[in-house]
Amino acid sequence: MITLFNRREVLLTYSLQAQSDARNALQAAGIDYIVRTKNTMNHHGAARAHTGSFAQRMDAAYEYKIYVHKADYAKARMAIGAM
Questions:
Q1: What angle in degrees, to the nearest 10, is found between the helix axes of 73-81 and 16-28?
Q2: Contact 11, 4 (CB under 8 A)
Q3: Which string of b and e fits 8-18 if b means at least 16 CB within 10 Å?
Q4: What pLDDT is recorded for position 27?
């Protein structure tokens, strides 16, 4: 079980495709993982309502963080590096 205290971030990306590829690689290697997604366009709940999406990079609208158990970190890096 992966918890806040025994996890390590193995990947940070803004690309949905890179996140998907990394998840597939980890799954193929038999490594448990957690994905946390953050909407970078939503600052304090209402920024987009005031400014819209003018001059904002839509390809960086979401931040994806993938965490693995600390004991699996080296194996996870190898799996992701091989993709």
A1: 120
A2: no
A3: eebbebeeeeb
A4: 97
- Tell which residue, 30, 33, 29, 31, has the closest CA to residue 65: 33
Beta bridge partners of 66: 11, 35
Residue with structure tokens 């992701």?
80
Alpha helices in the chain, H assignment, sequence order: 16-28, 47-51, 73-81
Per-residue pLDDT, 49 = 56
| Token pair recorded at residue 53 | 């999406």
* SS3 of residue 32 by DSSP: coil
Determine contact, residues 10/77, Cβ cutoff 8 Å.
yes
pTM, two decimal places: 0.80
